[in-house]
Design goal:
Layout lengths: L1 E8 L2 H10 L3 E9 L2 E4 L6 H4 L5 E9 L2 E7 L4 E8 L2 H13 L3 E4 L4 E4 L5 E5 L12 E8 L4 H9 L6 E5 L4 E8 L5 E3 L5 E5 L1
């Protein structure tokens, strides 16, 4: 199940505000302040730390089965998507990534598949990263500039590939996210990602 996307952006406060207005809840904020990583989680608001020049590594928002994260970057850059899988599915995807000569990194929290297309795929087996609710990522539209991407990703992800729509054009980019439970929404977030309400 698609559940997640992550990007880097200079528009941290604006991005958080956009998603909160659509019903997302801030789960955590972790940033470097005075040389150390510290939490700036709710109930803290931006008024409490806006002038402290915190370098945010991650801000995490959740709504139902949707988990969105972003951190500071000089310009908006799409980094990875995340899929909830069983342990068996995870092992199968890792094996197929090896057949494709794609690398992977694993730790106790998650696994990342390193695609050759300029983005990563997170494999997550822990359901604690999503909440109860009727919101879910129904489809993601990606642009990739290599012609074999759709076929290779379909092979890698097997049954999970159907919710990822690939077009071959320009640089790698996350163009559109179809999310259920957003009540007719169709507008772009501050990073140019179009969010569309899915039925």
């Amino acid at each position: 199940m698609l559940f997640h996307y992550h990007f880097w952006t200079p528009y941290l406060e604006e991005t958080e505000k956009f998603y909160v207005q659509e019903g997302f809840q801030v789960h955590q904020r972790i940033g470097r302040y005075e040389g150390e990583f510290q939490p700036f989680d709710p109930p803290l608001t931006w008024d409490d730390f806006r002038d402290k020049k915190v370098l945010f590594r991650i801000i995490e928002l959740r709504k139902g089965r949707v988990n969105i994260t972003f951190g500071y970057g000089k310009r908006p850059v799409f980094d990875h998507i995340g899929i909830l899988v069983s342990e068996e599915e995870k092992n199968g995807i890792i094996n197929r990534a090896g057949e494709l000569n794609w690398g992977h990194r694993s730790n106790e929290r998650r696994t990342f598949i390193e695609t050759p297309y300029g983005f990563k795929i997170e494999l997550q087996t822990n359901m604690e990263f999503v909440e109860e609710g009727n919101s879910a990522i129904e489809q993601l539209d990606l642009s990739v500039n290599q012609p074999d991407a759709e076929e290779s990703l379909s092979y890698l992800l097997n049954r999970h590939a159907g919710k990822i729509n690939i077009t071959q054009t320009g640089n790698v980019q996350l163009n559109r996210a179809y999310i259920s439970g957003l009540d007719g929404l169709r507008k772009s977030d501050p990073n140019g990602l179009e969010i569309v309400s899915a039925k």
